[in-house]
Amino acid sequence: MTEQDKAEFAHVWCASWSLYDKVVTDDVLSMSFEALCQYSIEQIKSALSHHIRSTSAGQFAPRPADVIKHIPSSPHSQAVQAWEQMNYAIHRVGAWNSVYFQDPLLTLCITKLGGWVKMCRLTEWQLERLQNTFIDSYLSLAESTHSEILNTPLLGIIDNQNRNQSLPVDVMAVVSEQHQCRIKQQRMALPTNNKPLPFNTNN
Which InterPro entries does the record cross-reference, listed alphabetically (predicted)? Predict the structure, then answer.
């Protein structure tokens, strides 16, 4: 945003807070603008709309960190999307099947936290408690990982039992498009010679 956007920002920020019967002070408004000035006013308005519609965070007046979470391309937004993709796959794919994520950081994060089968065996309560740890781990990996990551399928129970046969595995790939997830089945060979696996996301 630029100085010319201050008036519009003040309008939408104060309007969003008024939904929660709160009044924004000049100091809070100034600090919020400074915290979000690297983003466009269109991004701010879209993110505020997402926050207000959220069934969890949307119960509270938005703060800059809440807005940043909903801005595409921000590290925290990517971490939240990764968390949502993992949850989607846990409920749609399950521990018995192998899964492939387009995001290699997501694959690495799941591996660091114990693996695909372990994630699938967590209760809903345990998953909820894991969310902050997952996001922190994802952000840490994003900051520390600078080289190309080998992206591989995360094997389910069946393929783990058969992995010594060196056969291709049928994976349920989680394809994310415009924040919507879908499942695409494809047969994939396990990686060799440390080369990333090709994957076709087309229909």
Answer: DUF6475 (IPR045521)
Domain boundaries, the chain: 4-70, 75-179
Nearest to 32 by CA among 72, 62, 71, 70: 62
Enumerate long-range contacts of 139-148, CB under 8 Å, 24 or more apart: 139/75, 139/76, 139/79, 141/105, 141/108, 141/109, 141/112, 142/75, 142/78, 142/79, 142/105, 143/75, 145/105, 145/108, 148/196
Task: Provide the token pair at 140.
Answer: 């840490």
Give tens-digit pLDDT for 10-58.
999 999 999 999 999 999 999 999 999 988 898 899 899 989 988 878 8
* Range 122-138 average pLDDT: 93
The owner of tokens 């065996």 is 121
